[in-house]
Design a protein that fits this description.
Elements lengths: L12 H8 L2 H23 L3 E8 L4 E8 L2 E9 L3 H5 L4 H17 L7 E9 L6 E7 L4
Parallel strand pairs: 3-4
Antiparallel strand pairs: 1-2, 2-3, 4-5
Length: 141
């Protein structure tokens, strides 16, 4: 007897995962999406153009890729209860994964290979404006 494939609900993978995740994990996911949206809006207000959001590779993910003049900024967004907590939230392992993902992005977008490159952080906390930390770390980190 042939197996009948499971019916797909048409939801995005993130939505399907959210249906089975714990409430705390769902809240963290939504907080992250909201923080990335706020960070993108803040950068656009500062004259940046958002080239990519949530760029994923097998090696890591970049929250935002932003361009301003001849600069490409790979931006890690961190949302925490305080700006100080957010500032300390990027671990050395995460930095390495972001750098690897940035290399993959540049391979996929060779037209930007000659641009100045920078790794920024955008810190988000309740009741505060976002804090844009330019050159938060470098590729030698």
């Amino acid at each position: 007897m042939a197996k009948i494939p499971a019916k797909r609900d048409g939801a995005a993978p993130e939505e399907r995962a959210a249906k089975t995740a714990s409430p705390a994990r769902v809240a963290a996911f939504r907080t992250g999406l909201s923080a990335e949206s706020h960070a993108a809006a803040y950068l656009m207000a500062k004259g940046y153009r958002i080239l990519a959001k949530r760029f994923r590779t097998p090696h890591g993910e970049i929250d935002l890729v932003a361009k301003r003049r001849s600069l490409i900024a790979f931006v890690e967004v961190k949302a925490r209860a305080t700006l100080d907590d957010a500032a300390f939230a990027v671990t050395p392992r995460q930095k390495a994964r972001i750098i690897d993902a940035a290399q993959a992005w540049l391979v996929a977008h060779p037209e930007h290979a000659e641009f100045e490159l920078r790794f920024d952080a955008m810190l988000i906390a309740p009741r505060h404006l976002p804090r844009h930390v330019m050159a938060a770390f470098d590729a030698s980190a």
